[in-house]
Design a protein that fits this description.
By secondary structure, the chain is an alpha/beta fold. Helix content is about 40%, strand content about 10%. Strands 2-1-3-4-5 form a 5-stranded parallel β-sheet, sandwiched between helices.
Amino acid sequence: MRPLIVLFGDSHTEESFREGGWGAALAHHFSRSADIVLRGYNGYNTRWALKVLDRVMDGVGRSPAAITVFFGTNDAALADKYNRLQHVPLDEYKENLQAICSSIKERWPSTIVILITPPPIYDEGLQKHPSGDDNSGELERTNVSTGDFAKACIDVANNSGVPVIDIWSEIQNYPDWEKSLLGWDGMHLSDQGNRILFEEVVKELKKAGMSLETFPTDLPLVTI
């Protein structure tokens, strides 16, 4: 059987199979050697993800080779603003993320868990495109607060001994990242931003021994 790579996360994962998405690029990259399984849940934070984790993983079936865990943008919603119901305190976020990693490893000890930090926020872009019917004019999440959750994600990875992709920092290494690597809403990745994340995921998988060179090709190739 082909190895499974499961993508578990919020809207950054749910939307990853759209045209130009990092999940779609991953499926194309491994099109003859691994199956990419999408488990993305728009709007979810780690509190809700932890509650549904067993049900989500029951649906996966056999042991995956790797699972990406990509949460934090919704947890970082400010506690006193429009999307306050999504907010999760920083300490609880860390506890939830740790519990998600532990649960996956208890179920499938050989599965590689890869954490992904939330991407950065372009405050000005987000303010121009508020959520729902929010007319307050106030930011309901910021790049600074999201950065705190990115750092917390890295802490969990280091304490758990699992790899982490710091996409919050990586995106901000590029000039004009706010408009070139984030989409119209200032929160989700653009096609270029998705490409960077795809490349980072491929790098981490390769470090763990999963690549086009190590995965067998499904059935012989035809050359004409």
